[in-house]
Write a structure and sequence with these properties.
Structural class: alpha+beta
Strand order of the largest sheet: 2-1-7-6-5-4-3
Largest sheet: 7 strands, antiparallel
């Protein structure tokens, strides 16, 4: 019985890891993002990873002044939208890639 639980746990872990979608941090870094609604990562309305030392991204975590502030939970390149969740999980915020406004 113990072996069945172990095998079941391993299978669940493998399924979970295969279903988890990697965030395209290259796309996020290469664009400027404007705040839309909800949780705000920094003090201003823009996030720019290339021109600012205030913002950094490490895997799916966005840092502001070297402090983890949010996790990217959704990135939709088709509509240029990024959804983030605060580190404590209590709030979500939406940012739009400024390229969306140039169309």
């Amino acid at each position: 019985m113990k072996d069945i639980k172990t095998i079941f746990s391993v299978i669940l872990l493998l399924l979970f890891s295969m279903c988890r979608k990697e965030i395209d941090t290259g796309f996020i870094k290469s664009n400027q993002w404007i705040y839309q609604e909800g949780f705000k990562i920094g003090e201003g309305s823009y996030i720019n990873f290339k021109k600012s030392t205030l913002f950094k991204i490490n895997h799916d975590t966005i840092l502001y002044k070297d402090v983890p502030r949010a996790v990217v939970i959704k990135l939709n390149k088709n509509v240029n939208e990024m959804v983030v969740r605060s580190m404590d999980g209590s709030e979500e915020g939406t940012y739009t890639n400024t390229d969306e406004f140039r169309k």
